[in-house]
């Protein structure tokens, strides 16, 4: 039986093969988006939903942020907020290199006192490539280093990701993303989809 990651990746590559000829064009850094992800931390599964956006301040600098919710199956959920700033540089007529610094805050809610009011602060520096694979398919790869503090206990580690974005029209796209975090005692895997409206 195929898992979610295999299905999402296969769908993206099928779309890429069916796309039209490649044309040089700019990437947008002003958009709103919403998404859903299946998150696995050790043996715990959680569902994540979020709304976010980005605003280009000039040709190279942008700010971004999101609001979300991470809901565990063990009667615990986290409200999440992220804010960040980034810089995009053109590597070629098909690719951008994006350097960003993001801060995230999460606070738990639970009927179990041991799982309630847990604060998580995360600072992440990352580098991502955005590349036109075809005229309407964008591929991206990312790598970063995150520092995380959980109620006074801190740790750091690498964060890796990859994704494919399909543009149905120039302003609207849907993406599939996978990521893996090596921060703390437990690795975190995420498989998600999102829809974006750019300006």
TrEMBL record:
It holds the Pfam family OMP_b-brl. The keyword Cell inner membrane does not apply. Residues 11-199 form the Outer membrane protein beta-barrel domain. SUPFAM superfamilies: OMPA-like (SSF56925). Residues 1-24 form the signal peptide. Keywords: Signal. InterPro entries: Beta-barrel_OMP, OMP/PagP_B-barrel. This is Outer membrane beta-barrel protein. It comes from Zhongshania arctica.
């Amino acid at each position: 039986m195929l898992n979610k990651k295999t299905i999402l990746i296969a769908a993206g590559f099928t779309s890429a093969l069916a796309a039209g000829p490649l044309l040089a064009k700019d990437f947008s850094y002003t958009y709103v988006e919403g998404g859903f992800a299946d998150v696995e931390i050790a043996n715990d599964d959680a569902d994540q939903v979020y709304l976010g956006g980005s605003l280009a301040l000039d040709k190279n600098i942008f700010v971004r942020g999101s609001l979300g919710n991470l809901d565990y199956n063990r009667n615990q959920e986290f409200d999440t907020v992220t804010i960040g700033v980034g810089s995009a540089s053109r590597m070629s007529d098909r690719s951008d290199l994006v350097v960003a610094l993001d801060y995230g805050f999460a606070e738990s809610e639970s009927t179990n006192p041991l799982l309630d009011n847990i604060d998580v602060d995360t600072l992440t520096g990352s580098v991502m490539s955005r590349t036109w694979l075809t005229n309407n398919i964008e591929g991206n790869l990312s790598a970063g280093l995150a520092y995380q503090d959980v109620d006074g206990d801190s740790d750091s580690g690498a964060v890796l990701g990859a994704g494919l974005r399909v543009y149905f029209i120039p302003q609207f796209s849907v993406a599939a993303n996978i990521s893996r975090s090596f921060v703390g005692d437990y690795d975190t895997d995420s498989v998600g989809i999102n829809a974006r409206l750019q300006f």
